[in-house]
Amino acid sequence: xxxxxxxxxxxxxxxxxxxxxxxxxxxxxxxxxxxxxxxxxxxxxxxxxxxxxxxxxxxxxxxxxxxxxxxxxxxxxxxxxxxxxxxxxxxxxxxxxxxxxxxxxxxxxxxxxxxxxxxxxxxxxxxxxxxxxxxxxxxxxxxxxxxxxxxxxxxxxxxxxxxxxxxxxxxxxxxxxxxxxxxxxxxxxxxxxxxxxxxxxxxxxxxxxxxxxxxxxxxxxxxxxxxxxxxxxxxxxxxxxxxxxxxxxxxxxxxxxxxxxxxxxxxxxxxxxxxxxxxxxxxxxxxxxxxxxxxxxxxxxxxxxxxxxxxxxxxxxxxxxxxxxxxxxxxxxxxxxx
Length: 338
Hints:
By secondary structure, the chain is of the alpha/beta class. It contains 13 helices and 10 strands. The chain has helices at 22-40, 56-64, 77-85, 94-97, 164-170, 183-192, 205-210, 221-229, 258-271, 274-284, 297-302, 307-310, 318-337, and strands at residues 2-3, 14-20, 43-49, 72-76, 117-130, 154-155, 216-220, 234-237, 245-251, 287-288. Residues 5-10 and 102-112 have low confidence and may be disordered.
């Protein structure tokens, strides 16, 4: 964990928020944190982390019952579900959850089971590609990842995060068979291994794309938009088979003084309000949770907003993911090392 500016004094009008770097953190600062400070006078300090897992310093504090190093956690839905299961998340009052519409389980990932975690938005995974390699049309299928011309030039997330549902279906299996029968996924991933460069998170990946060292990348859409903003000549597509999605969450860790809990909950209420959701999610390129917040024109034009209705949503049930992600990541890493 690192702070993206000097430490904010531990006074009655400060708040520490766990965030990511790059476009993610920039969007949070511009559309949530700075407007929140302007409205409330509460200074917000961003504490930056990289990747999917919760930072070790935060986990250690929560496990030991010590005071957490942040007041608000903004993280992916999988570690949030695990934190909730471990009892690390402070209960959220009705003033926060009231007005946040429940989404159909068939359409979106299942929310954390207790009223301690709030899903902020839905993120779609897409296939980013070098336009020079596909000058006529975007790749039509995820099977393009197996093309010999891309050998060693495809990037996915560490541990194969987000890819398992896609691999299961593209490999000829069914999502309903996960986790008991995943041989289609593992067979397809075994065939994918020769195509893979070293799995990586997205910070710094734009340099490899600019240098044409990477042909294809399995990424969250906001990351692809960041690559484009950095000057990489990449397009993105949802292949014909469909794609997976994920959620990012907001929660308040247990062990904070009451005054900080109140400020943290106020920040969550603000971040989840319809006007803030609309601006924040439009800047990121994600689907807002609030029913009164419109999705961006980018998503509407791309068709990702209607993947659920089209039957092209390849996301494994979140409770299953949370229970098996460590096992799957280890098996994926063994495939790579083998």
